[in-house]
């Protein structure tokens, strides 16, 4: 099985989940001051932007991983489907967070749920990545054991931060959203995936046989 | 006609139907306890997960079938369109099942309708598969008559189980949903389609001329 | 400009418009008899099926046309965008027709509006087709003047039937919907586009130079 | 990184955003005169058409830019993601404009917000374009410094007109919508992007080394 159609289905889910987020932005009733109504909607905009950018970043990283693949086996398909299930659900906690931040009611629970889904996404993405790193036969690229350890450590740093956002929601849901925003901006400028990408262009350097 | 654009249109419908399911997850009104409200929504989550995974599995199997195709004729296009019509409608019985399981009202009818659509999907997928098995000129791969019989028998086992879920709804709609969940998990780990996929890599073994 | 990305954008709009139709199917409130409520929803199902199949057929024909193209120029892009605008709007008259057939109120107007959009789709599809027939440099295939006339006549027969559905709505909106259903079934079994497709496989037969 | 999957994700967002616009068209309640109710909905239709065409045009231009690319680097991915974020949000200001034009309430604010998003789209598209013009290594095509200046000037003319629409909303939101409609029609017939496209076919004419 070649990766092409898995990419097509995944691209579909990523782009639809990202675009469906707009349905959470509700038009204020046409009987008050529009600008002040929109000003009150800022949590909806903030959570929209954070969710959109996070989906966009996960998509970019997904792109990078799949560029390394020679073929896709069944366990990888299942791991990918799990990731897509979490990505597709993101508009739901985003709508919860926006609604509860706006109303000021039960913000902690809303922030914790948002963080939980973000963490689930981080973990399912990490599982996919680990599987691809471990199964050399699936990749076109060769990665040395030292490199793999380094890549896994970098992942290991990202995942607890996602999880920490859940705890932060108990202090302040807004602070928690700010952390996810900061993570999104950090991953936009931080070249973690392109590093593996560069290896792709120098496949002959460090060969590793029969690992895993 | 090459299969490429039929795949693109199908991938679109599969990924959109799967992603639209999230619209069935309603944000609880911001005036009660969010966590207990979400706990009451468990039927929505369960039916979301079962429908998402079922669409994902059908997509994977669709992928496998189309990887065998050399070209697509008009009857195949029509059979594919029928399958897509059923797949695209899945968010509707999913929303019905979630709503009626939550309210506890008329659960049997809701479960039976969900089962009916799942069965329709199984039957339309089976028809597509049978058509592809029977028309050797459409495929790149050669499949022996014995193999074809084996593949059809395996399909014949799956379809009545889908239909049995309709009957089970008269005992308990939750039990019926559990059966569809079990079927989804079973098909995720069971390598039925990859077996045909393997034949694709050994096309010269058993040649069959002029069958059907 | 090659046709590939125009196809990708078009496939997106076709598959999304077809799949969004499901949002018109409303879950009946969980306080009455579900089965009888669903029985009253038959106009929604009928219009769903007719719209889905019509979009599916137009997509297939679009596919056939684009398989003939060597390149895409700006007027073709604009004609294609016009067609997509009409296709993307189809869920709206479909929802109108379903709602008004269900309520029994103002059915004529609802049927006429549905017919109007179907006719607009027929006309915009016809314009695209005519443009492709007339501009030989855009195609990979050669079509004789006699063939072109025949193909245009066949189109000329289809378009007034779409328009006649508008008039029929003044007799009965249900009858009008039935005509569109019949047209959809007819185009599913009728090999009009595959005929041009076959020519694609015998490009050297009748050469035509410098027409249009 | 090759541009293929970035195009796939972008095509997804463009086509979904364009098709989701239809959800802003609300079916009038089945208790009054349908035709007169639809007549009152004209602002919804007008803003639907303008937004759909604008997204379609931006997609065409995006297509043209990406046809020049040899590879995609991280900053380009980020700029593209910013453009997609704005494109995906367009259904929201479109719904605001339609709702407030219909009600006659606070039209100025609604028009200004619509204009603001259109301008944001123009600016983010312009940034993408400028980046591609400046980084010769990303392109397959060579563009002389004189040509680049001409292309940048043409962009510089378009952007203030988008911004002027914000100001015009303070005179009349309808007039402002009319300007965006005129811009859409102008860009449909105006061959700005195909000019760069033509250069793509004469890559050897004017070579430029080491700029930027």
Report on this structure:
The structure is a homotetramer of 212-residue chains. Chain A is mainly alpha-helical and 212 residues long. The first copy, chain A, has nine helices and no strands. In chain A, helix 3 runs parallel beside helix 9 and helix 6 packs parallel to helix 8. Chains in contact: A-B, A-D, B-C, C-D.
What are the SSEs and their pairings?
The structure is a homotetramer of 212-residue chains.
Chain A: H1 4-20, H2 34-40, H3 42-67, H4 74-89, H5 91-103, H6 107-134, H7 145-168, H8 173-189, H9 192-201
Oligomer: homotetramer
Mean of all residue-level pLDDT scores of chain A: 83
**End-to-end Cα distance of chain A:** 22 Å
Tertiary shape of chain A: elongated
Q: Tell me the series of helices and strands of chain A, N- to C-terminal.
A: HHHHHHHHH
What is the rounded Rg of chain A? Answer: 19 Å
Helicity level of chain A: over 70%
Q: Please, how many helices of chain A?
A: 9
Record field, number of beta strands of chain A = 0
Poorly predicted ranges of chain A: 193-212
For the biggest sheet of chain A, the summary is: none
């Amino acid at each position: 099985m070649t990766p092409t159609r898995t990419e097509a289905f995944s691209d579909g889910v990523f782009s639809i989940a990202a675009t469906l987020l707009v349905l959470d932005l509700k038009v204020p009733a046409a009987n008050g001051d529009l600008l002040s109504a929109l000003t009150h909607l800022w949590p909806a905009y903030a959570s929209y932007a954070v969710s959109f950018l996070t989906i966009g970043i996960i998509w970019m990283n997904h792109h990078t991983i799949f560029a390394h693949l020679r073929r896709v086996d069944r366990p990888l398909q299942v791991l990918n489907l799990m990731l897509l299930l979490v990505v597709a659900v993101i508009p739901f906690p985003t709508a919860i967070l926006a609604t509860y931040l706006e109303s000021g009611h039960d913000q902690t629970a809303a922030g914790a749920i948002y963080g939980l889904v973000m963490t689930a996404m981080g973990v399912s993405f990490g599982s996919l990545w680990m599987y691809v790193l471990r199964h050399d036969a699936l990749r076109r690229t060769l990665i040395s054991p030292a490199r793999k350890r380094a890549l896994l450590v970098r992942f290991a740093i990202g995942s607890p931060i996602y999880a920490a956002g859940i705890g932060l929601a108990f202090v302040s849901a807004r602070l928690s959203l700010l952390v996810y925003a900061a993570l999104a901006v950090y991953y936009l400028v931080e070249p973690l995936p392109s590093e593996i990408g560069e290896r792709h262009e120098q496949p002959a350097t460090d060969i590793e046989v029969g690992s895993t």
